[in-house]
Amino acid sequence: MRVAVIDVGKPGRNLGWAIDEPDEQGTDLDACIETLIVSLDKGPVALGFEAPQFVPIRHDPLALLAGRKGDFGRPFSAAAGATVLVTSLVIVPYVLGRLRKGLPHASASFVWRHPLTKPGQLLLFEAFVTDQRKNTPTRHIEDARLAIADFRRGIVSPETFESSVTSDECMNLLGAALLRTGWSSDVALLSSPCLVIRSGSIRTASATTIVE
């Protein structure tokens, strides 16, 4: 399985992507999509978007915009989180729509504990890369690579691999994008949790490991 991450931003300005085995990278979103189509045609792919991909559903009006469990001072609703969330609302459907057109018989899932083995199987997740304090021309590609490395570390033991960010109830934006782009008609995707990989923190069922 190849693993890819798109660091969401404005195409042509502050967007970067990377994919491993073999390593490829770039800043051109369409080139990324073409690489993903070729990869999915040959085998399964895990694809992460570096932007909040679910928002919490809450019943207390005073807590509606509070951070998700695991956001740790970087809430989805404030500053950079809110900006990149809105950007992803157009980037993610664009990517998934192009993938669907290129591979109309492919399938997508959020279930990370069951390894993918067949061509056309797509696992979607949220990448959460923060506080890297870089200001280089390749920083968005570097962030994508960090998220790929964290995913690889966690998926070694998928049965105990846990999401870094959770919510008791959620609105899954990836699920909404899958419905809108024709991948599925199952509205249960809207309330299904997705995996979140927070850079530097690999969570298992028994512990949280901080990777330096």
Describe it.
The chain is built from 4 helices and 12 strands, in the order βββαββαββαββαβββ. By secondary structure, the chain is α/β, with parallel strands linked by helices. Helix 1 packs across helix 2 (79-102) and helix 2 packs parallel to helix 4.
Please give a handful of descriptors for the protein shown.
212 residues; alpha/beta; three-stranded antiparallel beta sheet; 30% helix; 22% strand; disordered C terminus
Task: Give a brief description.
This protein is α/β, with parallel strands linked by helices and 212 residues long.
Q: What overall form do the CA principal axes indicate?
A: globular
Instruction: Report the uncertain regions.
Output: 206-212
**Average pLDDT for all residues:** 91
Largest sheet: 7 strands, mixed
Q: What is the β-strand count?
A: 12
Helix amount, in percent? 25-40%
The total of helices stands at 4
- The proportion of strand residues reads 15-25%
Number of domains: 1
What is the element layout, followed by pairings?
Blueprint: E1 2-7, E2 16-19, E3 24-26, H1 29-42, E4 45-49, E5 54-56, H2 79-102, E6 107-109, E7 121-128, H3 139-155, E8 161-162, E9 170-172, H4 173-180, E10 196-198, E11 201-204, E12 208-210
Parallel strand pairs: 1-4, 4-7, 6-7, 7-10
Antiparallel strand pairs: 1-2, 2-3, 5-9, 8-11, 11-12
Helix pairs in contact: 1-2, 2-4
